[in-house]
Write a structure and sequence with these properties.
Layout: H1 4-23, H2 25-33, H3 43-59, H4 68-84, H5 91-103, H6 109-141, H7 146-183, H8 188-207, H9 209-236, H10 243-259, H11 269-280, H12 285-314
Helix pairs in contact: 2-12, 3-4, 3-6, 3-9, 4-5, 4-12, 5-6, 6-7, 6-8, 6-9, 6-10, 7-8, 7-10, 9-10, 10-11, 11-12
Length: 325
Amino acid sequence: MRVLRPLAILTGGLIFAWLVWEIGVDAILEQLRRLSWRLPLILLPQTVTNVFKTAAWRAAFPGRYPRFGLLFSVRLAGEAVNETTPTATMGGDALKAFLLARLAGGVPLEEGLVSVLVAKAALVGALGTFIASAAVLAWALSDVPGSMLALLALLALYMAASTVGFMWAQLRALKLGGRALTWIGLGERAAAVAGRLDSDLRRFYRDQRGRAMGSFGHSLVGWATGALETWLMLALLGSPVSLMTALVIEAGAAGVRAVGFLIPGSLGILEGGIVGLFSLLRMDPATGLAFGIVRRIREATWILVGYACLALLRAPRVTKPAAGS
C-alpha cells in the first residue's frame, strides 16, 4: 500500500500532464483568460454547498446539536485534510471528531465518531441518488447521448454498491474487528471502544431515523447545488450550457471523483474524467480541461481556508487572569 499510493499519485500527475500536452497550453490559457476579474465568483456556489453539507453532518449527531458555526469550521478543516492526505477520505473525518471532543465541551468522542460515520454514509448514499436522478432526468427531459446515460448509470450502480459496503462496514465490521483484536490478545481497550461504537451506531439507526433521513436530505441538496457551480463556471468560461447539461456534467464529475477516492484529490483521474465527459457531450475538450483547472483553483482556495480553520482551532486558548491577580 505504501508503494501503490505514491505510484497512483504519480500516475494521476502524468495523466494531467498528458492532457495538458495533448490539448495544448495555449488553448487552455485562452479559456482561462475569459475569467479575468470574475474568478472569485467561482467560490460562491461552494459556500452554499458547504452550508448544506454541514447541516447534513449536524443532523447526524445522536445527542444535542453542536453550534453550526463551529461545525462549519471543523468540517472545512477535516475536508482539507481529506483532500491532501492519502487516507481514503477517512483521516479528516476522524480529525473532525477529535476536534469536537477537544473544543465543543460536551460532545463526547463517541458521539463525534457516530456523527461522522452516519454523515459519511448519508453523503455516499445521497451521491448515488443524485447521479441516478440526473440520469433519469436527462433521459426524460433532454437529448443527452446514450453513452453519457450509460456512464451515469454505471456510476450510480458503483455508488449504490459503495453505500451498501459502507453500511455493512459500519454495522458489522466494527464488532467483528473488535472481536478479532480480543481473540488475538491485542488491543482490548480498542476492542471495547469498537464495541461501544457499534452499539451506538445501531441505536442511532434504530431510534433516530428522522435525523438519519435529515442528514441524507441535506447531503442530496448539497450535491445538487454543485450543478449551479458547474453552470456558473462554464458561463464565466464563455461556454454557457443549460442547467440540465450542468446537472449531467456535475453528476458525472462527482461520480468520477468518487471512483478515484484513494488518490488525494483524485489528481489526474478527475481531469481525465471531465475531459471524457465533455467529449461524450460533444463539447470542446479544451473547455473541459479548463473547467477542471478552475475547479482545482476553487478546491485549493477552500483547502487553504480549511487549514486556516485547523490552525485556529488547534491554537492554545489564552485564559484571562483573575481580577486583582
